[in-house]
Records
---
Amino acid sequence: MVACGNTLRGDDAVGPEVGELLAVRLAGTGASVIVSDQLLPELADDASRARLVVFVDAATDRPVGSVGVRPVAPRRAPDDAVGDGRAAVVPPRAKRSLDPFSHGMGPEDLLALTRDLYSATPQAVLVSVGAESFEPGAELSGAVREAIPQAVLTVLHAIVEGTRSVPTPHA
Amino acid sequence: MADKTIVIEPVTRIEGHAKITIQLDESGEVADAHFHVTQFRGFERISQGRMVHEMPSLMARICGICPVSHMVASAKACDEILGVTVPPTGVRLRRVLNLAQIVQSHALSFFYLSSPDLLLGFDSDPALRNLVGVARQTPDLARDGVALRRFGQRIIERLGGKRIHPAWVVPGGVSRPLEASERDSILAEIPDARERAHRTLEWFKKNVAQWTEEAAHFGDFPSLYMGLVHEGGNAAYSDGLLRVVDSSGWVMADGVDPRAYGDYLGETVEPWSYLKSTYFKPLGYPAGIYRVGPLARLNVAERLGTPAADAELAEYRERLGRYPSSSFHYHYARLIEIVHCIDVIDHILSRPDVLDPHVRARAEVNRREGVGVSEAPRGVLIHHYKVDDDGLVEWVNLVIATGHNNLAMNRSVLETARHYIKGDHVKEGMLNRVEAVIRCYDPCLSCSTHAVGQMPLQVDIRDAEGSLLRQVSR
């Protein structure tokens, strides 16, 4: 499980809050909980060793305090070749420049790196909690705090469902 | 043809937000160029009124990449204010933490930020010119980069409790001794890290000839170099005294106690950037241009002090001369430093006394002023504090590596732009080279401007009247 968020930016801390709770609940089960300010390329190594990766993060694209879950797949590699110095033939809308330090690396990017670096494609889901505010501060908004138990249950359910039929990875 | 200006904004794959402005004359030749840092943070001001004991942890918040260097420099300034002598094991553990940070930061700079240019080509599609592109092209190299960064971060996490902003370094030493299990875990990972570091260095040496053009035009000019050295001339990273040499090897200053930095270093501010420019006072501004960081450290030191790294250093000097002056060679120097840092970490952690529980000296405020210095990944870092009798901070001056390099970065941008840009019909790959020369320095703009805000950069091309002709931002 990768719990993302900045604990000093309001509701962005919901990922780490859920992560801290689940680190206790999942101790000794073989599950590993990683709490991180953001997704970083180094996490691809961890992901490559996992049967299932559950990302937990705050979201702005869902109602405040609601909890959602959806499967995540690696971002598709562009069809063109890289490294030959020629202009690529990727349609403009398909292009996406990844700067791993723009705080913009998403679960799809991390899974793509996991695939490209380690030839591993773990099953993955994203559990997201609708957030209200990302302003500086150490307090969660009321609705997001109240959503934490639901988020924890959602993660646990995702783990049970996700590991039921997933084979053990080769890595 | 009227004078024109090119704007590159944001400058990408750097740590911070900035832009580059390139001014063309009427014939389309580059007349001038500036590297603007467009963010502001103000840590020197916001730390006023805080207790001196809080400073290392507070200062660590300046940066998410090199918090350890800020902690070490800050703690050393606080050591002086307390008037304590840090126990030897405390000193060594601080060194390990700082070296681990240099490894992870150098890995980030080389593999994540610069290797896409080197491996995929400066003219390759910018949408693919990133770590994912590197991973697809040469997964072995990318895996080595990821593993080396992780190696450094794990050491920081094991010693400091977390990867970013650990609170382990405190005034007087470190807050807790090293556990045997932690030491053993780190030592167990060293052979793998060492192998990856050497493999990367071999890869770079094998391929460096293909970047001869860039090496000749990426900020190749004579300047001064400044770094910390131990007595005897070995490179120092957490201790030592300042040495300044010029491009011919003439020693301009040596054995300088960091407390006397103000006698040698002046600071000035330009209206077009939040980043202060530092210069070597005896030569004045702007003649006192100097560089810090990996290239400078290897130039000022006689040797590194570990056999494998010194063998690499000897080959480096055989290839490039005793005092390489192109900023492109920061990359090569950075890779040699990774090898050295891993070996020093191994050496320190293999000492039987590294588990000594006496790692911290305690005292109240005994002096009103303190200066702390360390080598951050990007170069010399100076923290200077003044406090009142109760230990409340009254005044702070931070002299950051990226500030030391500001004059050199601006000169490098101008030199590179003059070589690659002719007229306003500029290809993206040319602009990327102007950005890439900045990446050689691996500037950290959050550190150096002390900025609230975000981190990207931009290139502007303007005419002689200052009208914006073209702006590149991603």
---
Amino acid sequence: MFKFGKQPQSIDFLQPTYSPTDIWSTAYIWLVNIGKYMLIAVEILVIGIFFSRFILDKQSNDLKEEVNAKVTLLSNDSWQKNAAIYENFQYLLTDIKLVKEKQVINSVKISELMSGIPSSLHLSSFSYSVNKVSLRMTSNSLDSIKDYESSLKNNPNYTGVVFAIDKNDKEINVNVNFSLVVD
Amino acid sequence: MEGKLLNTEEYIKLVKESPEKKRGYVFAAVTVVVSILLIVFAVRPTIIKITQINATIKEANRLNTALDAKITTLSNLDKQFEEVGTELQDLRLIYPANGDFSLFLANITPILSRNGFYLSGISFDKYSDKNITFAAKVLVPWSVKISAKGKTSNAVNLLKELEALPMYPVIESFSYTDQKDESGLTSFSINLRIYKIDNANFYK
């Protein structure tokens, strides 16, 4: 088909000694001279990519197995139970810290309120409820009551101070209502 | 001379347009096309697959690291829990999950008697006020009403000691009138806010 054994002998240097004329011979010569390098390059590329895929596939499978093993370990009843308990304690400790830091100690406020009442006023009833204060007092001195009223009204920590004074023959009854200013 | 030049031009034209040269171009083009087809239909899908595998590996690595961290954290917590386990167990009494306020009750009586008070009555109820400015995740406020008798002079100290209890109670309301009983003691009403946990299995 290719007639390679019958190449003509010639001394005409302007013409190649052998020049294939049929398509198969030309294809063969192209393939063995230039095309092969292109195909080899592409094949090397293909093989490289396939090998890298095998390597990556192996890595991926190994990782999946590792992850599955860890998930199985963590799915164990004992681990799950412990994890839930630790999580609960974590929440509880956070809440305790929040309660400790955020909530206001009202006994200090009540102490300040009670110690702020002058000794000339006799406290007959005291009520504190969620920053609202109600006092009932008796006294013989109107000046003491007025001093106390002005001290409460000038205190920036108290608001809505209302004094109701009822005077009878023996003593003066005073009802005081006000609110504590919340920070 | 003119005939010679004409022959050379013709010859160059002949070489350039020779059928061998054309055939060579065709085969080069065919090889390039075959290579492109190979790249497009074999290499490209593989590269896409490799990219996907890479993304899977990255995700698996992230998951693996997270699981490692979780296992390490749980192991460390196991050790810490062994060390402070007894202290943490005390929290069951301080913040009960089953409504058992025995520790609170056990603390109330000595505090009252230490301040010269005695307990007239105590009751627990749902907390209905909205005086809490913070949002706790597990602790639920609960209301305790204490009726006690004692001296007015000791009231402030009593309130301070109550608020110093380990369950961090807060005085919600406090009231008394100056009416004394036959023993000379005044009746006090104290409303406290305490905390509990609304999950019976919280510590289990």
